[in-house]
Hints:
Elements: H1 2-22, E1 23-25, E2 31-33, H2 38-55, H3 69-82, E3 86-90, H4 96-104, E4 108-113, H5 134-148, E5 153-157, H6 160-170, E6 176-181, H7 187-197, E7 201-210, H8 215-226, E8 236-241, E9 261-266
Parallel strand pairs: 3-4, 3-6, 4-5, 6-7
Antiparallel strand pairs: 1-2, 7-9, 8-9
Amino acid sequence: SRAIRCIMNVVLFLAFFCCISFVVIDANGKVGHVKNSFYAVQKNFYELQAILDAKVPRDKQVGHTGWLTNMCSYYWNQAHLSHAKTICEVGFGVGFTSTIWLTAGDATVYSFDLFPEEGKVVASAEMGDFVNYMAAYQNAGIRFLQEKFPGRFHPIKGYSDKTIPAFAKANSSVKCDIILVDGSHTTEGTLVDFRNFKALAHKDTTVFIDDLEDARVSEAIRLAQEEKILVPQMTECIRGEKYINPDFGHPGWSQLPGDGKHFCRTRYQF
């Protein structure tokens, strides 16, 4: 009857709606659940931000990837579609980039940063007043990620010029499918991270480099290419993202200064 057909149409519509609400399809036609979608990334961002805000005033939290939605989407897309299994980063910040990596798939993440103990302040002229709050916001981020992604997030504590080579030596079987260099923004510090991370790379490793608007970082890239550490040409660069998501940014900040954020994708030269 007509009534039965109407009921069946409603049932089919609801079934379809449920499917599209909980399933996403990648570029290869592979079905994945919302838990790995960019929607899930954003959901996790709000959870993390609430935890951070309860620990540290927003304007004392170091700037992070979550400020820039397009950058977040780009990182998520690269990690999700590549099905990366091991991701290594230098520069945890407050944990937003790690949240992207962990949400995008089932990768294990190794994050290298200072990770000071509660009550201790590290010396960093680069970070200024933010270092006084680093222990509080980093430890809050670590707890959030380790509880939400048990067994998959591993913080490596200390200065990266020491911890990355020590980790590579002690874990020769670990090779990173994605490497993010976003730690020291001095030329020498960035160059040392490029050199040391190569021991954890393979020929197909994707290398992301943040903050190329900083001349010191750009110079480190030039030197790394000159030393034949990185390939001569970048694979892809995104330039000029400026507008800050107010849900995660500092109060009163609507955009980044100057030309905005520049970040690139490249590979190691073997």
